[in-house]
Amino acid sequence: MATQANPEAVLPAQGIEAPRSGRIDPKYLRSRTSRSNFEMMAWVFMRVSGAALVVLIFVHLWVNLMVGDGIHQIDFSFVAGKWANPVWQFWDLTMLWLAMLHGTNGMRTIINDYAEKDSTRAWLKAILYLSAAVIIILGTMVIFTFEPCLTDEAGNLLEGVAPEFCHGV
Amino acid sequence: MTQTESETKSASGGRGTLYKGREGMWSWVGHRITGVGIFFFLLVHVLDTSLVRVSPEAYNAVIGAYKHPIMIIGEIGLVGGIVFHAFNGIRIILVDFWKKGTRYHRQMLWGVLIVWAVTMIGFTVRHLMLFLEGWEGF
Ligand code: HEM
Ligand code: HEM
């Protein structure tokens, strides 16, 4: 039993050795910092981004599903109307980046937990990072290159598709 | 804590640790499953939103699928997952940063479940009402 190694250092109730009571392989010392600095930042990021995402996502769901006509209002001109406003552009951009980074980091943790073979882990993470990068870049480009007032070849606004404000310009 | 006290506790199955065992374990499993589910939804969601750059018709056709009764049920499930992950996430943050967080983590889990249930009743009723108002049949 491990507790016999150093009876002085045993916690009375649990029979677990107190930290540093035995000789510890340097590999397991907590003060080793090289890699854990990243893990520490990831840990903080999960909490900070999580707190921000509550507000970002709840408002997103509220505005798109709970007010107006709810789910039925969502179509091209609805999106056009929202993204005509820089506030919603910025809102969606922040939500996209935070949710994707938070989700990707969470998936990384899960892969580390379950994929035991080194090569499997490496492959899964490569696929994860690649798809995350594609989605973040695609989503960002969609927000910034979006054209709300589409016209036909003759230059007339597409009826039934262009939102109200296009008729003013 | 005395020796006998701690022995009684572990004999009766133990109280689990802060993160795992008993309630802590179930909330952790739930948090993990909902996190993965939301992640995959988000991948698809950015793809379907990107159709606004293809054409209004393409976007409207695909987003129209979200208005089918089966998808309405799916949306309630999705929002249920998000709301749980969000509230339980706040609980995790409080356990980590609030002085008394560790002491009340079990009570806070009940709080999460109650607030989740209330939020979901409100959301489900409103979502179904709005859906039925605008529904044009199959
Ligand atoms: C059924 C529920 C949902 C519906 C109906 C919905 C609808 C929409 C719509 C119509 C847009 C276009 C722009 C806008 O309205 O702001 C959008 C964009 C977006 N949504 Fe949602 N959403 C839902 C759930 C979610 C959830 C749960 C998340 C986060 C995990 C999310 C994240 C985003 C992001 C990041 C964008 C921007 C996409 C881009 O940059 O191309 N949405 N959503
Ligand atoms: C709504 C606001 C959210 C809050 C408050 C929140 C909070 C948290 C917290 C505190 C953790 C634990 C991190 C750790 O143990 O170090 C976590 C894990 C995770 N989150 Fe979120 N999160 C939110 C939204 C999201 C979204 C939108 C996604 C997906 C895109 C997501 C996916 C994940 C995943 C996959 C994990 C890892 C789970 C695990 O390791 O068991 N979360 N979240």
Can you walk through the features of this model?
The complex is a heterodimer of chains A (169) and B (138). Chain A has helices spanning 36-66, 76-83, 86-114, 118-145. Chain A is mainly α and 169 residues long. Chain B has helices spanning 3-11, 22-49, 56-64, 69-97, 105-134. Residues 1-14 of chain B have low confidence and may be disordered. Bound molecules: protoporphyrin IX containing FE (2 copies).
Helix and strand layout, with pairings?
The complex is a heterodimer of chains A (169) and B (138).
Chain A: H1 36-66, H2 76-83, H3 86-114, H4 118-145
Helix pairs in contact in A: 1-3, 3-4
Chain B: H1 3-11, H2 22-49, H3 56-64, H4 69-97, H5 105-134
Helix pairs in contact in B: 2-4, 4-5
One protoporphyrin IX containing FE sits between chains A (43, 46-47, 50, 53-54, 57, 99, 102-103, 106-107, 109-110) and B (31-32, 35-36, 38-39, 42, 85-86, 89-90, 92-93).
Identify the notable features of this structure and list them briefly.
heterodimer, A: 169 residues, mainly alpha, 3 helical TM bundles of succinate and fumarate reductases, 0% strand, elongated, B: 138 residues
Radius of gyration of chain A: 26 Å
Q: How would you classify the helix and strand content of chain B by structural class? A: mainly alpha
**Structural class based on helices, strands and sheet pairing of chain A:** mainly alpha
Q: Percentage of helical residues of chain B?
A: over 70%
Please summarize what this structure is.
By secondary structure, chain A is an all-alpha fold.
